[in-house]
Write a sequence for this structure.
């Protein structure tokens, strides 16, 4: 779509009762990001009340009409997705505005490929809109959903604000206050209450992570000032209030003196402590009774049946968890029920999928069939194809596959044939058991759930998934090509273009994605693999290039970006030498003297391993000094170049270890050695480093933009 154009959703798909809107962007550094917000507007173009503004600290509508689903990593950045149940949007809401804003002085000109996409309830993408000309803008209205003639339409807006979230919010009747002043006021009150912004009763408060990340504190206030703007093309011209006029001074004056106690947006959450309580058992032979026992599992069929029943029952009983796993598949927010071993007709031989998920919302049903595999068992194409056909005939929305394998972008685990003559679309989605465990751990360890019983259920589920007999351990085998490729590298007989090298590269990528899930669940922070490739490049071509490099230099390499760390964590597996290297490059400070930098770094690494390698990065082709931390502790000055005129750009910290030789997860396995290396490096080195400083914006820059 082009800027200003509009389209009726029903003309694009028959399944637009619920839609998924994705806002995406990339970043040359991989660190750029933005915050999504949604506003529900009445006929006057203003929010009706504080409940009509959704953002990072108020992500879900009580009626299920709006839900911010969070971020999904892409090849070069992030995509932030929002679920809309258009059948549940109140009748007095005329428009739904979808926007995003950057914080801490950043602007959208620093991001690449700023875009919007919209998919129907089955997950099929219906439209795309690329936002252009937003160089100096710190907030953008990407688009809006609005009613016309009893139908929902979408308009590509692409309007920017150089005054950030404050300017955007003010135009729609939302008050916004700088968080620094609010934080000082809260501190003066002794910290008894969270930060409160000035404004009308019923304000929406952005607490916690907003203050820590330099975001604004937001309060919503209705303001009845309409304005109109011409509609875009194609189609007939329409009168739509795309950007209301600024509020009159008397409106602001009238609000003074009306402040009352505002409702808190933060709900109390229950998380489990990291340290286990002291056991009452007399010795280690006493086994605690488990809700989901695994000792009786003897066969793969037993494991698949038990794992499916355990997972689906917890999803139905813990709404936060069930919603978290199904929202990305287009499921609405509603009452969920789950079933196992359901018999469905299919020609002469009925089929029994492992499970069925049904969600009821506003009298409508969303249904997904579930096919489960455990241990190293692969999904069978004929089984999945049969379930896709059944789902299409019966009007179901999705087929979900679950296995230890990890799906890669552009490389589906199962190829199925889609009958394009069918009007009803069925989405095929995959979940790895590692991702299920990650989501459970994020909830019970970091984000919290509604009550202690839900937390206990998730803890039991996590214990079950991590038990050695469950068969739900995640990706655990580098495949049959692993040994031949290692041998070919050793004797230099592996040639470029060998398909076995490509198989190893794909499995390496799966392993890295799983390592990120495990590390992110442990830390409660985003940990994502970095894919360095040109925007729009074919993932298959990128992997083929990496396979050719593996044949030449014998190394598998990957990079991980972990939220809150000063650099990218790199890992290299040298198949010739059998050594793993984990490292991180940290930039030199902007102020101070080199000797002070060296001394401070050594102090920060006081508890790091003595065999940590430290290399000084300098300008030019020649490398700087390098040594072990053990040798540098008494003489930090040895980190400095002998030539005092050489400019230091940063420091590289590295740990080396021998990697496992076998392809699986045995004690000497390669997969386990990679996982251990990454976790050890983060635990013993990265945690001691300074967090990245927020980017400073010169004073007056915002005024210059205005």
């Amino acid at each position: 779509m082009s800027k200003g154009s509009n389209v009726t959703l029903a003309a694009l798909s028959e399944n637009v009762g619920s839609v998924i809107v994705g806002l995406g962007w990339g970043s040359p550094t991989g660190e750029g990001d933005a915050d999504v917000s949604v506003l529900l507007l009445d006929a006057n173009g203003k929010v009706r009340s504080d409940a009509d503004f959704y953002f990072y600290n108020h992500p879900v509508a009580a009626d299920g009409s709006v839900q911010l689903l969070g971020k999904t990593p892409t090849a070069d950045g992030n995509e932030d997705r929002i679920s809309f149940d258009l059948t549940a949007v109140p009748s007095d809401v005329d428009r739904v505005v979808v926007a995003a804003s950057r914080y801490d002085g950043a602007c959208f000109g620093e991001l690449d490929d700023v875009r919007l996409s919209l998919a129907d309830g089955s997950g099929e993408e219906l439209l795309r809109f690329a936002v252009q000309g937003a160089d100096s803008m710190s907030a953008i209205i990407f688009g809006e959903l609005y009613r016309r003639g009893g139908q929902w339409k979408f308009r590509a807006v692409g309007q920017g604000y150089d005054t950030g979230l404050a300017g955007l919010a003010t135009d729609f009747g939302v008050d916004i206050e700088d968080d620094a002043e609010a934080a000082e006021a809260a501190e003066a009150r002794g910290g008894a209450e969270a930060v409160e912004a000035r404004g009308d009763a019923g304000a929406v408060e952005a607490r916690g992570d907003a203050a820590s990340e330099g975001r604004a504190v937001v309060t919503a206030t209705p303001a009845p000032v309409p304005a109109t703007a011409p509609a875009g093309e194609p189609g007939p011209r329409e009168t739509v209030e795309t950007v209301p006029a600024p509020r009159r001074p008397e409106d602001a004056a009238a609000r003074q003196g009306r402040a009352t106690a505002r409702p808190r947006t933060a709900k109390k959450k229950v998380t489990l402590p990291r340290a286990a309580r002291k056991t009452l058992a007399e010795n280690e032979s006493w086994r605690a009774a488990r809700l989901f026992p695994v000792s009786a599992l003897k066969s793969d069929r037993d494991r698949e049946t038990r794992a499916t029943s355990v997972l689906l029952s917890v999803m139905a009983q813990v709404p936060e968890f069930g919603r978290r796993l199904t929202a990305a598949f287009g499921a609405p927010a509603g009452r969920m029920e789950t079933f196992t071993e359901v018999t469905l007709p299919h020609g002469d031989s009925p089929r029994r999928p492992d499970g069925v998920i049904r969600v009821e919302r506003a009298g409508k049903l969303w249904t997904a069939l579930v096919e489960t595999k455990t241990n190293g068992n692969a999904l069978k194409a004929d089984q999945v194809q049969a379930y896709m056909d059944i789902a299409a005939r019966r009007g179901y929305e999705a087929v979900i596959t679950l296995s230890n394998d990890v799906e890669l972008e552009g490389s589906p685990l199962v190829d199925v044939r889609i009958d394009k003559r069918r009007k009803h679309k069925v989405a095929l989605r995959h979940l790895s058991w590692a991702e299920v465990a990650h989501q459970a751990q994020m909830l019970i360890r970091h984000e919290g759930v509604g009550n202690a019983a839900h937390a206990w259920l998730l803890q039991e589920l996590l214990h079950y998934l991590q038990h050695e007999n469950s068969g739900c351990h995640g990706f655990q085998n580098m495949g049959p090509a692993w040994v031949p490729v290692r041998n070919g590298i050793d004797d230099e007989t592996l040639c470029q273009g060998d398909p076995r090298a490509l198989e190893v590269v794909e499995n390496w990528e799966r392993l890295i994605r799983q390592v990120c899930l495990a590390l992110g669940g442990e830390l409660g922070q985003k940990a994502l693999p970095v894919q360095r490739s040109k925007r729009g490049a074919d993932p298959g071509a990128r992997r083929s290039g990496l396979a050719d490099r593996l044949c030449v230099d014998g190394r598998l390499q990957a990079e991980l970006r972990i939220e809150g760390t000063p650099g990218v964590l790199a890992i290299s597996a040298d198949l010739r030498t059998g050594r793993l290297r984990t490292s991180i490059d940290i930039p030199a400070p902007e102020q101070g003297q080199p000797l002070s930098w060296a001394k401070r770094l050594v102090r920060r690494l006081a508890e790091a391993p003595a065999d940590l390698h430290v290399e000084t990065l300098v300008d030019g082709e020649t490398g700087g000094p390098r040594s072990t931390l053990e040798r540098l502790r008494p003489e930090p000055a040895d980190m400095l170049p002998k030539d005092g005129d050489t400019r230091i750009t940063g420091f590289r910290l590295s740990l080396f270890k021998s990697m496992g030789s076998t392809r699986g997860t045995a004690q000497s396995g390669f997969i386990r050695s990679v996982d251990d290396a990454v976790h050890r490096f983060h635990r013993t080195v990265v945690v001691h480093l300074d967090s990245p400083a927020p980017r400073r914006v010169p004073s007056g820059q915002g005024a210059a933009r205005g």
